[in-house]
Amino acid sequence: MELPPPTYGSSPALLLQGAASSPADVVDGAGVTNSVTVHPLVLLSVLDHHTRRQEGAGRVIGTLLGRRDGNKVEITNCFAVPHAERGDEVAIGKDFNRQMLALHLRANKRESVVGWYATALPEEDEGNEEETKDGGKGKKKMTSSPKSYRCIADTSSLIHEFYAGECDDDPIHLVIDTSLIDDSLALRAYRSTPVQVKGEPLANMFHEIRLGMTCSGTEKICVDKMIKSDDLLKRRNKSQEEEVPEDAASDESPVAALQISMEKLYSMLETATSYVDSVVDGSVPPNDVVGRQIADALSTIPRIRPEVFDRMFNDELQDLLMVTYLSKLTRTQLEIAEKLNATLSV
Predict the structure, then answer these.
(1) How many CB atoms lie within 10 A of CB 211?
(2) Dist. CA 257–CA 254, nearest whole Å
(3) Do 160 and 171 form a contact (C-beta atoms < 8 A)?
(4) What is the DSSP secondary structure assignment for residue 57, as one 8-state letter?
C-alpha cells in the first residue's frame, strides 16, 4: 500500500526513565493520564502485525482504541497503520488510518482513539572486531553482537504529534519489546509533554506511566484455552519421547472437558447454596451485593421442566459422543494410510 509522499521534519524525543510506583508520584491534573490497562486482544494484534511486517522494517506502528475514564485509559482494540521511516523523516498512511477508524467505529461506537502503539526499534549494530590467526598472519573480522532496542526514537515525536490531532485528549504511546532478549515480552506506556525554551518547542519528553493487564469474560476463556493447549502440546511431546500412549497423556478430550465443566458448575452451585443457607440461618450476615449477583445469575436461567432438560442434555451428549467417535475414526484411517504409503514407498 502506498504511503502519502509528504514527510515531516525531525523533532528530538527525550525519555524519562522509570514509572511512577505510587499514586503520590503522579502529578494529578485535569486530563493527565496516570494509569493504563491493556486487553490481551491488543497484545495479540500487535504481535501478529510484527510477525507479518515487511522484510527490513525496523518497527511497526498502529492506532489504539479504547475508553477514557478521568485519568485512566482502557485500551480494548487496535489496528495496524502503514508507515515508513527514512532517517529523521517519517510518512504515515493517513488515509488508511481514517478508513480503518471509520470501519471500527461502525462496529463499536463506544471506542475512540486513545493513542498509538509501536514495537521496539532495533539500533544499528556495528559489530565487534576480533583478531584471528590464519597462517601466522593476524587478521581482523567483524562479529555481530546482540542487537539493542530502543523504546523511544526521535521519530516517535513526529508520530505522537500526528496522533495528538487524532485524539480528543493527550495520546498514549504503548511500546511492545518484541526482541525477546530477556525471554520475556515487555510492555511500557508513555505520555508526552513538550519541552519549551522561551516559548519555542524544543523536544518532547516521554514519561512512563503505570500499565496493567485486564481481561473480559470472553478474553479470559480464550487465554485459558491457549494456555491449556500449550500445556497439552508439551504433554504430547513428552509422551512421544517416553513412548506413552497419547490418550493416556491427554485429558482434553471433549468428554473430559465436559466432565470438568460440570464438576466446576456443581462446585459453584454448592458454594452458592451453602452461602444462601448460612444467610437464612443467621450464621452469616447478609450482603446486598452478593445477593444481587446471585439473583442476576438465577434470572438468566430459562425456566424449563427437569424432564425436558434431561432429554435435551442427553441428546446433546449423544451428538458430542458421535462427533468424537467420527473424529477418532478419521484420525485412525489417516494414520493407517500414512503407514501404508510409507511401507509401499520403501
Answers:
(1) 19
(2) 5
(3) yes
(4) -
Question: Using an 8 Å Cβ cutoff, are 33 and 207 in contact?
Answer: no
∠77-83-86 over CA atoms, to 5°?
Answer: 145
d(CA 219, CA 212): 15
**pLDDT of the residue at 143:** 41
Mean pLDDT of the 47-61 span: 84
Residue located via cell numbers 432438560: 309
With b meaning 16 or more CB within 10 Å and e meaning fewer, what string describes 53-74? eeeeebbbbbbbbbebeebebb
CB 162 within 8 A of CB 92: yes
CA distance 194 to 206: 9
Q: How confident is the model at residue 22 (pLDDT cuts 50, 70, 90)?
A: very low
Question: In whole angstroms, what is the distance from residue 328 CA to residue 326 CA?
Answer: 5
C-alpha span between 232 and 303 (Å, rounded) = 38
Mean pLDDT score of the chain: 77
Contact 116, 42 (CB under 8 A): no
Mean pLDDT of 229-249: 61
Most confident listed range (40-44, 52-56, 338-342): 40-44
Taking a C-beta distance cutoff of 8 angstroms, is the pair 172, 211 a contact?
no
d(CA 147, CA 32): 35
CB 118 within 8 A of CB 61: yes
C-alpha cell belonging to residue 44 = 495479540
